[in-house]
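FORM 7B: Structural annotation worksheet

SECTION A. Query
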Amino acid sequence: MKVRVDRDLCIGVGNCVAYAPTVFTLDEENKAVVLDPSSVNDNTLLEAAESCPENAIIIEDDEGRQLYP
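SECTION B. Predicted structure
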């Protein structure tokens, strides 16, 4: 799975960090950045993405098909 954050949508709530702190962190602009998506299972990754109130976390499969949102 591939994970990216749309920085224009991210408002820095930090739910993703709470769900998956090894995958996400907030940078100096209080925006989420991706660290290591392989550090958690796919379900945890999806839960973290779903917890974002702005749908700023985009998850794609290995072929580039968007799985979320």
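SECTION C. Observations
The chain has one domain: 2-64. The CA atoms of residues 18 and 48 lie 8 Å apart.

SECTION D. Sign-off
Analyst initials: ____
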